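Holo prediction. Input below; ligand is 1-deoxynojirimycin.
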Amino acid sequence: MQKGILMKFGHFDDQAKEYVITTPHTPLPWINYLGSENFFGLISNTGGGYSFYRDAKLQRLLRFRYNEVGGDIGGRFTYIKEKGEKAWSPAFLPCKTELDSYKCHHGLGYTVFESSKNKISATSTHFVPMGENCEIQRITLTNNSNETKELSLYGAVEWCLWNAVDDSTNFQRNLNIAEVEIEDNVIYHKTEYRERRDHYAFFGSNVKADGYDTDRNTFIGQFNTWENPSLVTQRKSGNSEAHGWYPIACQRFDITLKPEESRTIIFVIGYGQNPVEKKFIKPGIIRKDTAIRIMDKFKTEKAVSNELKKIALHWESLLSKYQVSSDDEKMNRMVNIWNQYQCMVTFNMSRSASYFETGTGRGMGFRDSCQDILGFVHLIPTRARERIIDIASIQNEDGSTSHQYQPLTKRGNDEIGSGFNDDPLWLIAAVGAYIRETGDYSILDEPTPFKNEKGSEKPLFEHLRASIHFTMKNRGPHGLPLIGRADWNDCLNLNCFSETPGESFQTVQNYDSGKAESVFIAGMFVKYGKEYAEIARRRGEQEEATKVEQAVSEITKATMTAGWDGEWFLRAYDAFEHKVGSNECSEGKIYIEPQGFCSLAGIGKDEGFIEKSMDSVRKHLLGEYGVELLSPCYTTYHKELGEISSYPPGYKENGSIFCHNNPWISIGETVIGRGANAWDIYKRICPAYLEDQSEIHQTEPYVYSQTIAARSSFANGSAKNSWLTGTAAWTFVNISQAILGIKPDFDGLRIEPCIPPTLKQFSIIREYRGSIYNIHVVNKTQNTNEPSQPQLKVDGKSVKGTLIPCSTTKKTCTVEVEV
Ligand code: BGC
Ligand code: NOJ
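Structure of the complex:
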């Protein structure tokens, strides 16, 4: 760390598309994700983390202890033990032996540790190959000294007993059930396979080990920890077989390295599944075909290198759909690499598994997953389409919807239930984005069940209809939409009234007022009501479109009267029809969400509402590190407001910089042409611009975090909850569409940059509906915040307006833009 000069802990390598961390002593574990199909791993810069198959709660392979003290000691462990020396780990943990050199390269879908100690260097590469349910670790040791070195390499994993919640609670049962099999170079974790499971996990190596262990107590020894297992200290193995207690898989290799000699070992952590009727090959002996095939496939270094190349090519092709080149290298790297990568990760994980989400709580969120699609759809539209159908399938016939579902069962999560009244409208956002990207209207005809009930299938469009009418039907005393349990802000619980410690604010509703209204949902309705009407009209449903447009103008009007506070949009009316987010309130006078959403929906644009709202945001909510959620923060608990006031001031929903809705403000600024302001907000929360302040910011400089403590907190600028946040998708929408101005529309690509004068020119390559657009924008604006009309030349010819209709576009198309 370069303390005092720059508070950096690494650097970007844009060529390699990596962030290279140069010390294990980062402020927090800085992690990466492996895999993007069915098998996933989380891996930190000190080697912590875990892997799972499809569902981080129900099919967890490796054990990880959240809340662990002493660093993030995860499910995979590597030890290098030279005779007479202290053992060390290439990732620093678990041994904590100071290394002579250390680097961790987090790349797209892989992580590489390069480190050395006592003139032995180790390069350990971790990834999940495409199309396979396994994780590879390829480790190469090299002797850089001029004497022969004798050492032992240990690779180990600690098994989780599948259900991660049960694994950490149900010890009276679990300490009796572990079972393993050991065959060739593979250790099989077959706990519960004897009964109802037809899947197993395995840990193998490409060459024969010199010793193994499967029983944790034998390996670690009494009073030791993963930091210093007694058998590693002794350079031995116990060849133990686990029966109950704590099953692990560990392999030891005794290696002699002459000067300059290298040796590579490939470890595989895998998942195999069998047809129920063929699970055993002999009584008690499991069928191992999958493991054997996978072990065989990855037994050579060449095979492993090829798989890594495939991943690189895969990402190359995904990212090629949107590439910008400008003088601002920080923006370039975020747009071209990291923001899109994070969109993939949020799409895959929703809000389930990160270093802040345990993988055991929330599954896929209805609103979260819908919003994730906004930033993901251009990458793999077919997967977005499938996801949309999955999400819509949990909806109820009246348009309301379960708030979450488990990825494995795809059924609505009954514990949380429904009642979050913003949820239904997000479905329209996702479907609209899908159609704008692909032009594929057939999705609207896709038979999609309600509540996942067979026989209840109706065309997807009927789900959109149910969504929009749900809001129309559920309006309160001021004609604004009712909030229900909560809207986007899970913590603004206006019908909750909880007085019991520990009670969940998300599920309890002690006061069914039928009155509390949300100005935020009003903004959403105006935005997505227009989107829905457009879609309906294109399906020939004129009458329906007109009816909804009528409701849009009613709600617009209600927002501009009952929803307007004079200088900004109100937040809500509570259960007693008192204002929330008004100058009349003593705390929580102004909230960010309605400023963002009502502005981006264009409410009151001609009447100057948006300007006022945006100016108020800058005046009351803008801090050095971004726009705060509300001000002033609540200093006491208000049971009529719910969880929001349960947080100390400046944290989370009680007025932190909740990054997710910062892009709404930025987009709101572009609606009135204020490019400089939009850019200013974009930059404040963008992690690449905060890299030099990593000691303050704390979380990874290559991804967005959900929340940054605000000025009123005790840690202004320090972020938490990195990776799994709607910030990823919304920021990508903001920068790629609102600021740089490349907007997928129903009939083609619209080009409407809204940029600061400092961005003099830039080029974008955009792949869209089978054509490649080479776009070059020249910025002649002098004024920072004045709207300007872009002039377009398409293939050399001036065109009117800003739309390039798909019908006129060739395979490649050159667009010159002047603003
Ligand atoms: C958090 C919210 C989150 C909610 C649901 C709350 O404690 O503050 O950000 O959405 O829980 O899990
Ligand atoms: C995080 C949740 O995942 C998201 O759905 C919600 O909108 C925000 N918290 C704000 O409460």
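The CA atoms of residues 143 and 261 lie 6 Å apart. That is the main takeaway for now.
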